[in-house]
Specification:
Belongs to the cytochrome b560 family. It is found in: Membrane. Keywords: Heme, Iron, Membrane, Metal-binding, Transmembrane, Transmembrane helix. This is Succinate dehydrogenase, hydrophobic membrane anchor protein. Pfam families: Sdh_cyt (PF01127). It is a single chain. The chain is an all-alpha fold and 122 residues long. The protein has a single domain, classed as Fumarate reductase/succinate dehydrogenase, transmembrane subunit (3 helical TM bundles of succinate and fumarate reductases), CATH 1.20.1300.10. Helices cover 75% and strands 0% of the residues. The chain contains five helices and no strands. It has helices spanning 2-21, 32-39, 42-70, 74-101, 115-121. α1 packs across α3 and α3 (42-70) runs antiparallel to α4 (74-101). The longest helix is centred in the middle third of the chain and has 29 residues, at 42-70. The chain starts with a helix and ends with a helix. The structure holds protoporphyrin IX containing FE. Protoporphyrin IX containing FE binds at residues 1-2, 5, 8-9, 12, 55, 58-59, 62-63, 65-66.
Length: 122
């Protein structure tokens, strides 16, 4: 928990700085194109995926500690801890798929502002 906590400090505060502080215009620069640009860059894909994995593993493991501390019935404890890991696994798989398969042109039609850019990229 302490090791993942240290890495999470770097990942989370780096994430907040790069998304909300560093861009010209600050938080107002954050839009679909900004995120699409980041997801087109392997560095930010891996940054976000690492943050996702660590936050869910750290968070689920931390919640496991709380459940084990407070839930007295063994069956309920097992069910809750299993539910935690299943939820974390589902979110990790879905989130990782989203980050690595994200395509800003998916479903774009001619009335979209992305149409010309997507036509040129096709
Ligand atoms: C800045 C980033 C973070 C740092 C530095 C950090 C650090 C820590 C540390 C050192 C512990 C262990 C405490 C102990 O041993 O008693 C802990 C526990 C925990 N963390 Fe984090 N964490 C961070 C982010 C997160 C995030 C994003 C989540 C949720 C997704 C989370 C959820 C938890 C939970 C549920 C516990 C268990 C609390 C307990 O045992 O009482 N943490 N955290």
């Amino acid at each position: 928990m302490r090791a993942s906590g240290v890495v999470l400090v770097v990942l989370i505060f780096g994430h907040l700085f790069v998304n909300l502080v560093a861009p010209e215009g600050g938080v107002h620069a954050l839009n679909f194109a900004f995120v699409a640009g980041k997801f087109a860059t392997p560095f930010w894909q891996w940054w976000d995926v690492l943050m996702l994995w660590l936050a869910f593993i750290h968070g689920a493991n931390g919640m496991r500690t709380l459940v084990n501390d407070y839930v007295q019935n063994a069956t309920v404890r097992t069910v809750l801890v299993a539910a935690l890991w299943i939820a974390a696994a589902v979110m990790i798989v879905l989130g990782t798929l989203v980050v690595f398969t994200f395509d800003p042109c998916l479903g774009v039609t001619s009335d979209s502002t992305l149409w010309e850019m997507c036509q040129a990229a096709a």
